């Protein structure tokens, strides 16, 4: 928020219940400070994935109880959008239809409640990278998940033009023996989205899901380069670790490292802004002037 020029690359920030209630040292609410900096404040509203009874190894996200009142309160605090994350694992016999449908239903109920109080829902069904599954298996599972999510969104009467989809990219599992190229990932992800995501959705903001910062940028860039003229939706980013981690590693909670950490944060934000436009390249990394402070 205090990083100079950050709002040129980052349009929104997702807060937690604790952080949206915080204030700056001068008493300004954090949501107001973000707005003043040109960044839209949002709020994470699920309470996390829990073990799915009757389905060992699978999880379902909870948090619908009391959500209507919580959303109204967050809107009063200055939030303009909300986020709910569902996690879908891939492995032997999973995901089950029960897991996919249960998580899709919760996402749709959450989205309907958001729109009821004037918040934009960020719908985040994440097919996890963990595992030995191939790119092709991830594509099949992701397509099935997205089709089910949008079926539930239709059923709940959610206005598709008023939401943002935050999906995973189609990727091989982290321990798969074959790690596909950047272009192969771009092709598989675009093909999956084209088959499963209605054109009425205005934007898709990918999660990074544990990808390295550079790979996440390169893969987003490849999609915008290869398919720009064929995209019915804007392809953008909603990265956490892939933007924040380099800065956090530099900062280490030390005041003397703040400036260098801000440089690192701004660099990653600019790289992803370029990827959003199809203008990112490896040269942006090699010419980075981010200086690391002495330990």
Please describe the topology of this protein.
Elements: E1 12-15, H1 17-20, H2 30-36, E2 40-44, E3 49-51, E4 59-61, H3 67-77, E5 81-88, H4 97-116, E6 120-127, H5 135-155, E7 164-165, H6 182-196, E8 203-206, H7 213-227, E9 234-237, H8 241-251, H9 258-276, H10 282-286
Parallel strand pairs: 1-2, 2-5, 5-6, 6-7, 7-8, 8-9
Antiparallel strand pairs: 3-4
| Overall CATH architecture | Alpha-Beta Barrel
| CATH H-tier superfamily | Aldolase class I
SS-based structural class?
alpha/beta
Helix content: 40-55%
Mind summarizing the main beta sheet? 7 strands, parallel
Q: Give me the Rg, rounded.
A: 19 Å
Q: Can you count the helices?
A: 10
First CA to last CA: what distance? Answer: 25 Å
The poorly predicted ranges are: none
Residue fraction in strands: 5-15%
- Would you state the CATH class? Alpha Beta
Kindly report the average pLDDT value.
Answer: 94
Order of helices and strands: EHHEEEHEHEHEHEHEHHH
Say what the CATH topology is: TIM Barrel
User: Care to count the β-strands?
Assistant: 9
The strand order across the widest sheet is 1-2-5-6-7-8-9
Task: Write down the domain tally.
Answer: 1
User: Could you state the oligomeric state of the chains shown?
Assistant: single chain
Summarize the structure in words:
There is one protein chain. This protein is an alpha/beta fold and 295 residues long. The protein has one domain: TIM Barrel, CATH 3.20.20. Helices cover 43% and strands 14% of the residues. The protein contains ten helices and nine strands. Helix 6 links the parallel strand 7 and strand 8. Helix 4 crosses helix 5 (135-155), helix 5 packs parallel to helix 6 (182-196) and helix 7 packs antiparallel against helix 8 (241-251). The mean pLDDT is 94.
């Amino acid at each position: 928020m205090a990083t100079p020029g950050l709002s040129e690359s980052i349009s929104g920030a997702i807060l937690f219940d604790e952080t949206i209630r915080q204030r700056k040292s001068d008493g300004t609410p954090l949501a107001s400070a973000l707005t003043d900096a040109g960044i839209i404040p949002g709020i994470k509203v699920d309470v996390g994935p829990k073990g799915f009874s009757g389905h060992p190894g699978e999880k379902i996200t909870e948090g619908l109880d009391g959500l209507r009142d919580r959303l109204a309160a967050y809107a009063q605090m200055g939030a303009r959008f909300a986020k709910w994350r569902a996690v879908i694992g891939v492995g032997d016999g999973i995901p089950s239809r029960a897991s996919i449908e249960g998580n899709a239903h919760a996402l749709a109920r959450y989205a309907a409640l958001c729109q009821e109080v004037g918040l934009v829902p960020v719908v985040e069904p994440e097919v996890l990278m963990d595992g030995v599954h191939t790119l092709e298996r991830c594509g099949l599972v992701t397509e099935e998940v997205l089709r089910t999510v949008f079926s539930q969104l239709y059923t709940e009467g959610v206005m598709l033009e008023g939401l943002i989809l935050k999906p995973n990219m189609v990727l091989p599992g982290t321990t798969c023996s074959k790690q596909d190229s950047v272009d192969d990932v771009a092709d598989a992800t675009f093909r999956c989205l084209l088959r499963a995501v209605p054109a009425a959705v205005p934007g898709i903001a990918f999660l990074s899901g544990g990808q390295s910062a550079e790979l996440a940028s390169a893969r987003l860039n490849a999609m915008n380069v290869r398919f720009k003229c064929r995209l019915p939706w804007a392809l953008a980013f909603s990265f956490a670790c892939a933007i924040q981690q380099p800065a956090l590693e530099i900062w280490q909670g030390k005041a003397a490292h703040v400036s260098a950490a801000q440089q690192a944060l701004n660099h990653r934000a600019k790289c992803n802004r370029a990827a959003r436009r199809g203008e990112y390249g490896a040269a942006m990394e090699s010419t980075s002037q981010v200086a690391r402070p002495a330990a």
